């Protein structure tokens, strides 16, 4: 439930409670008004009968005889009100009602039952009538249940209609006002979502309401702080990667120069020994051949190590040649059962040296992960260079969910850090029905884009 409907539900509950309280007050007041009407009618009728007694004593009796209710019946306009006259011995000598009888169908049965239980429905007013302290009888005024319940029901329906109209009007105005006041909430949620996606340059506007303005300012300060931290982290990561690549380049050169020359010297000495052994001591030829095999193995291992540290093709022939050589090295039947396909669209020379190195390392790490973990039969590496450098590494391996927060490896983490250091975007997507796709987007230098 959103905040608008939450507030409206609370307003509706409060309105219902207020309506119940007001209804009770209105019904209690209606019952009091009927009681007052009965008492007033009893007083008025008692005075009329006293006057009739006085006129009768003076020689002007009523033509209808005492007690005469005709005057009261003609002047009373309250339907459902009945009067009677009781003699001192309890006999009712006359009983009349005014107005037409009210039909009980004007109100529901449940209301009739509840009202009778709660307030009573037949108030009675009694007044003694006499002359010169001689009691002639008692006038009795009764309000029928129809009168009291009808008045209460009319009061309740009028109140309910007014309350319903008021609540609907207030709810509509509150809904519009709250909706207008909460409109920035959508902007704030969308802004937080953009910040969560890494768009740290996004800023919320300044709002008119103080609370939203404070929230927007706090979020913008947080974004500024995160952007500074990310910028510092990217600079640090870029510097660390540069130092790492420089160290790899230095180690590769040292291995090639020192160990390579040493192995070449060993091969030369071994060749001279073999030549002398063929002439003077043929028994040593087997040993020289064994030495030659060892040196060839060391040379192959050294060449593989230097390639992993820093492939010569990357510095001498460029990124495209280095990637092609990398793919060829994994296409050997003995290397892996996965078949790799490389597709390059665009000019790799548009990439900076750091970006070219990053792309090579990403492909190298991606292929290594595929070979170790995926069990894939096919893998595809696509590099597109246009407005940005877009790299996609896809396989049809066994992955069915996003990897792999609880795994021990740091390959994917290293790939993400390398991309983040260059200001790029890194994304993992599970292929259907299984397999993994790595998407990398790196910015190009401004002059290259132009």
CATH topology of the largest domain: Beta-Lactamase
| Percent helix range | 55-70%
* Contiguous runs where pLDDT drops below 50 for at least 5 residues: 405-409
Name the shape in a single word.
rod-shaped
CATH architecture of the largest domain: 2-Layer Sandwich
Beta fraction: 15-25%
Q: Write down the CATH class of the largest domain.
A: Alpha Beta
Instruction: Kindly report the average pLDDT value.
Output: 80
Structural domains: how many: 3
Can you list the strand order of the major beta sheet?
A: 5-6-7-9-8
The helix/strand class is alpha+beta
Task: Please characterize this protein's 3D structure.
The protein is α+β, with helices and mostly antiparallel strands and 450 residues long. The protein folds into three domains: 3-180, Beta-Lactamase, CATH 3.30.450; 193-251, no CATH class; 319-450, Histidine kinase-like ATPase, C-terminal domain (Heat Shock Protein 90). 61% of the residues lie in helices and 15% in strands. It contains twelve helices and nine strands. It has helices at residues 3-57, 70-75, 109-119, 145-181, 183-196, 210-280, 285-309, 312-316, 319-330, 353-374, 411-421, 446-449; strands at residues 81-86, 92-98, 124-131, 134-143, 339-345, 378-385, 388-395, 425-430, 436-443. The strands form two sheets. A five-stranded mixed β-sheet has the order 5-6-7-9-8, with helices on one face. It has a four-stranded antiparallel β-sheet with strand order 2-1-4-3. β6 (378-385) and β7 form a beta hairpin. α3 (109-119) crosses α4 and α6 (210-280) packs across α11 (411-421). The longest helix has 71 residues, at 210-280. The radius of gyration is 52 Å and the shape is rod-shaped.
């Amino acid at each position: 439930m959103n905040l608008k409907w939450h507030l409206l539900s609370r307003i509706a509950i409060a309105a219902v409670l207020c309506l119940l309280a007001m209804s009770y007050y209105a019904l209690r007041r209606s019952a009091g008004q009927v009681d007052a009407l009965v008492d007033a009618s009893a007083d008025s009728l008692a005075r009329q009968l006293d006057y009739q007694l006085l006129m009768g004593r003076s020689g002007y009796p009523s033509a209808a005889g005492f007690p005469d209710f005709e005057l009261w019946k003609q002047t009373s306009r309250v339907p459902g009100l009945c009067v009677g006259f009781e003699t001192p011995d309890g006999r009712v000598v006359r009983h009349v009602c005014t107005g037409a009888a009210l039909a009980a169908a004007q109100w529901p049965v449940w209301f009739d039952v509840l009202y009778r239980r709660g307030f009573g429905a037949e108030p009675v007013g009694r007044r003694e009538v006499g002359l010169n302290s001689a009691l002639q009888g008692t006038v009795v005024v009764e309000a029928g249940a129809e009168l009291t319940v009808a008045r209460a029901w009319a009061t309740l329906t009028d109140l309910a209609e007014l309350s319903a109209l008021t609540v609907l009007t207030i709810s509509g105005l509150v809904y519009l006002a709250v909706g207008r006041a909460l409109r920035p909430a959508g902007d704030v949620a969308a802004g937080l979502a953009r910040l969560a996606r890494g768009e740290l340059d996004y800023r919320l506007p300044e709002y008119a309401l103080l609370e939203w303005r404070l929230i927007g300012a706090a979020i913008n300060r947080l974004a500024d702080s995160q952007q500074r931290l990310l910028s510092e982290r990217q600079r640090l990561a870029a510097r660390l990667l540069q130092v790492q690549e420089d160290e790899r380049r230095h180690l590769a050169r040292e291995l090639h120069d020192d160990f390579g020359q040493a192995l070449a010297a060993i091969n030369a000495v071994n060749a001279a020994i073999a030549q002398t052994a063929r002439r003077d001591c043929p028994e040593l030829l087997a040993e020289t051949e064994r030495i030659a095999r060892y040196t060839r193995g060391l040379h192959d291992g050294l060449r593989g190590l230097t390639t992993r540290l820093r492939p010569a093709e990357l510095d001498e022939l460029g990124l495209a040649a280095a990637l092609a050589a990398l793919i060829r090295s994994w296409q050997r039947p003995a290397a892996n059962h996965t078949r790799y396909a490389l597709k390059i669209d665009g000019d790799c020379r548009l990439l900076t040296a750091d970006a070219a190195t990053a792309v090579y390392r990403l492909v190298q790490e991606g292929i290594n992960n595929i070979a170790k973990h995926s069990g894939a039969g096919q893998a595809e590496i696509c590099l597109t260079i246009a407005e940005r450098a877009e790299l996609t590494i896809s396989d049809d391996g066994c992955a069915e969910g996003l990897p792999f927060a609880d795994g021990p490896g740091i390959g994917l983490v290293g790939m993400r850090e390398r991309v983040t250091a260059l200001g790029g975007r890194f994304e993992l997507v599970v292929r259907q029905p299984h397999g993994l796709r790595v998407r990398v987007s790196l910015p190009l230098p401004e002059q290259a884009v132009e």
